[in-house]
Every structure is written in C-alpha cells, then in structure tokens.
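Q: Start with the shorter request: fold the first protein.
A: Done. Sequence, then structure:
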Amino acid sequence: MADPKPNVTIIGAGRWGTALTNLVRASHHPVQSWSRHSPQPLADVIEGATILVSAVSMKGVWPTIQQLQLLGLDPSQIIVTATKGLDPIRRQTPSQLWQQAFPHNPLVVLSGPNLSKEIEAGLPTATAVASAQREAALAVQKVFASERLRVYINTDPLGTELGGTLKNVMAIAAGVCDGLGLGTNAKAALLTRALPEMIRVGTVLGAKAETFFGLSGLGDLLATCNSPLSRNYQVGYKLGQGKSLEQIIQESEGVAEGLNTTAVLMQIAQDRHLSLPITTQVAALLQGQLSPALAVQNLMARDLTAEFNPS
C-alpha cells in the first residue's frame, strides 16, 4: 500500500504564499493556507500537517515562530522556510531563527528564480530545496515538483537562503542602472561583479561558494535583476528615474525586502571587515546620502584591481 500523501500547510497568504499553495495543488497534494486574517485558528491548521511552509515576510518571521512555540510542534513536522531576508535585530536568516526555535524539527529552505506573478500565470520555472536532512529535502521536493516547477535538492540551506536574500540588494542596483539608462554593457558588468560580492558574504557566514552558482544564487540574481515584476528592481528603477524612496514605498505593492537587507548587510560588513562596493553604494543611495548618478560614478572611480582579486 502506498504511503499517504503529506498534508501541507502554508503560513502566509500573500502573493508568494498563494503562489506556493497553487504549486502544491498542481502536484496534487492536500494543502491549506493560513494568515493572520484567517478565521480558522492556527492551531487547527497545523494539526496533522506533515509539512509547514513559512511564506511570511521577514518582518513576520519572528512573530510566527513565537505563535508556533506557544502551540508546540511535533518533532516529525518538516519546517520549510521560503522567506528571503535578514532579521534586523539578530542579523540572522529565517532558517537560523527557525532552527534555534525548533532544534528537533527537520528544516528545509526553498529558494530560486521564482517570481510569484509568473508562477500565478502558470509559467514554468525551477527552484532549490536545501536541507541538512536529505529525507526532509526529498519529501519537500516531491510535494512541490510538477510540470510547472522543477525542483532540485542540495545540502547547503544557508547558501541557498543567502543567495535569494543578497540578490535583492543587487536587484536595487540593477534597477538603478536601468532607470538611468546606462545600457546593457553596464548592466552586465554590474551583475558579474555582484555575484562575487554575494559569495564573499556567504562564505564568511558559513555558506558554500558553489551554491551561489545555482538556482538560488545566479538563477535568482538573473531573474530578479532583469524583471519589472521584482519589487526590489522597481525600487532601484524608480530611484534612477528621480523618485524619492518615500514616494516609491508609498506606491509599492508589498514589501521590498532588499531595503532592510541592505541595512543589515552593512552592519555585517562592518563587523566582519568585508569590502562590499555595490552594497555600500546602494546603502548610501537609500539613505539619501548621494544621487543614483553619483553612486555609479563612485563605483567606476574605485581603485583599479585584478578581476579575480578576492576584495
């Protein structure tokens, strides 16, 4: 007799949570979603769930963890985190927060070039699910895999998570590049230099360098930095066109996680003595310390160095 299909609960009913719910349905697995606006108690939704997927914003991760700690989880329940960001107080990734709160539960990170609007439109894509527990990664792979989504597994959850997180900073820079109309050459140069900057951060924090050449690193970088569907790209693009950050935030639908990530990343860079040229210019731009044109000028005026110089 075949094993019963796992029951999946998606926590977070925004655009990303809705897209993930639809992907699980497409693979013909039982799924239900929950948000703070749901009439059903969270305790009822997680009861009997084999896999719990957190698709909340970075701001909502810690409150969600606290709610679930009060309710209690069975150690067999697999936790999947699909949030891209850094906690501004603890300077940690979502998976680190989840693992500390629920050390006995299998933990999986889901990340890749997954623009929610394209998923909603039924367009094909691929993603990575990463875990130190192979069986947990395989279970999540089966739940999400369908004709619309090809799912790969790896054993570097931190690198998988950081790839999807750090590229949001680079997407702001890419948007500025396009907003200023700097052309394809400049954009290609920017993205090429963005990847080693992401790897520099990731390896210092404990991730594997090769993970950043995969779907959650290079794949997500290319998707997010080249699509007007990306909120982070849109922030940069509108800054490049001369709009203020306050105006852009007011006009935006949802959260551009790159804004918070940039601030936290600068704190990490200072603590770890990391050279992050692109992030530094994005941070100064977001803080209103310079114009988009001057940020580009500063990058172009940096000391000449070898292409593969580690700094």
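Q: Next, the second protein, separately.
A: Sequence, then structure:
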Amino acid sequence: MLESAVVALRLLQYAAAMVLMGSSLFFIYALPSSGDGSAAQSRWTRPLLISAGLVLALAAILGLAAQSSVLAGSVSEGLKVETLKAVVSGMDLGKAAIVRAVAALLAVVCLLAFRPGQRSWTVVAVLGGVATASLAWMGHGAATEGPLGLLHLGSDILHALAAAFWIGALTAFFGLLAAPPAAPAAHQALYRALHGFSGIGSALVAVLVVTGVINSWILVGPDHVSALWTTAYGRLLSLKFILFIAMLGLAAANRFRHAPALGRALGDNTSPESALGELRRSVVLETALGVGVLATVAWLGALAPPMAM
C-alpha cells in the first residue's frame, strides 16, 4: 500500500514539475508575447500553472511522508518528527523533496502576485526547471556510486529537462486546442507554435535518446540484456521504450500531416475545423502516451535494476 502511494505521488510530481517548466517555456518561445493567441490573453494559462505548482508542492510533501514511512516500516513511525528530520537532513531525496516544494510554492506566489507575461513565465520556468532537475534524486541516478555516478546523475537531469519541454508543450497544445473557437489570429498563432516546436522537438528527441541509452547502459548493462524480458524492471523499461516510439510516431504525424493541413486551411481561408479536429485527437493520444511514460518511470524508481541484482 505504501509503495503504491510512493509511486502515485512520484507520478504526480513528475507530471506537475514538467508542466510547470515546459508549459511556461512554451508560452515564451512558441506563442506571441501579446495580443490574440498569446498566453497572457488566454484564460487557462495561469490557472494551469498555478494548479501544477500546488499539485507539485502537495505531492512533494506527501511523497516525502510516504517515503519516510516506507523506510521506517510504518506510517506511525514514518510521520514522527525525528524520522522526518532524519530523512530531510540525512538523505538527498529528502532534501530534493523540500527543494521541489519550495520551488513550486514560489512559482505559485509569482503567478498570483504578478500579471501574466513574459517575465512571470520566465521566473516560473526557472523554478520549474529547478523542480524538474531535482526529480533525478528520486530515481536510481543519485544512488549510482563510483566514476559513473556523476555521469548517471547528469544524464538523468538532462533526460528530465528534455522530457519537461515535450510534456509541457503537449499540455499547452492541449489547452490551445481545447479552448473555445478562437479568432483567425489565434489559429495562426497555433500554426506558428506547431512549426516553432518542431525544430525544438528534434533536438529534444536526440537528447532523450542519448541520455536514455546512457541510463539504460548503466542500469541494465550489456551483460544483462536478457533482463529486459525476464525481470519486472526490464519489462517496464521495454514498455517505456514502446510508448516513447509511439509518441514519436504521433509527433511525426503532427509535424508532417496535421500541421500542414491546418496551414493549407488557413492559407485558403477555409474552415480549419477538420484539421483542428485531427490535431486534437492526435495531441490527446500523444499526451496519454506521455502520461504512460511518466507512470512507467515512477514505477521503475521503486524497482531494483538488473545491475543491482
């Protein structure tokens, strides 16, 4: 029961931190700074980030309590002040949880105190980046010892940051596509955002592939390839890879099929609803696959990798 709670709270932290960072960055680089189609003019942008910040702060604190209870063997022991102090002061995962909670709450304060705009998005993106980087201390990267330790931890951090760009952008695209019918200028902004993200997306895929290979090499190793289908960790890692490939397929469809279809409709001054409908379905499915990837990562963090067996 406690282990399941730890995994669920990890998933919430992964998703919320990546939305906090990735969506706020998307508002800066992919959307107009003002006017129709801008993040400042949209009603859903600030509530999205505030919700992500609050969820992250709460999940980080509850996750710390759940992890403490697992280590102590029971909820009653885990919630004792001395036990929590020991986890926070003596373990990196405890310190990282506090960093995430503080970064999330500071982001919420910024969003409530200042008007929506490039400056507030930038501050939130930085705080979200800090929170996302700290996720590496929930996984195996922070536990790797020896000369590979720094490489593994750095690779985990880069992997999380690249994933945040992608997950945050998907969330923002979902918000844009789920909003009520907008003015032509907003549709143009959406089309430009699709094209703007496509170049960044290629770089993100490269980073995710390289860091994913490094992490898998360290945790599985060439001598344990058979563990990919004979152990729970290996099967989950294989599932993550399959979900990632499926996301790549949908991303390619968005870039080479759905975005051009929207561009043609806008260029011909015809109704873009058909193209928008196809794009909505694709983004919803890609987002669902992204959540599936995060769920496997949250679960993997609770399992012993083949190299540790």
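Q: Describe the second briefly.
A: The mean pLDDT is 89. The first helix runs from residue 2 to 29.
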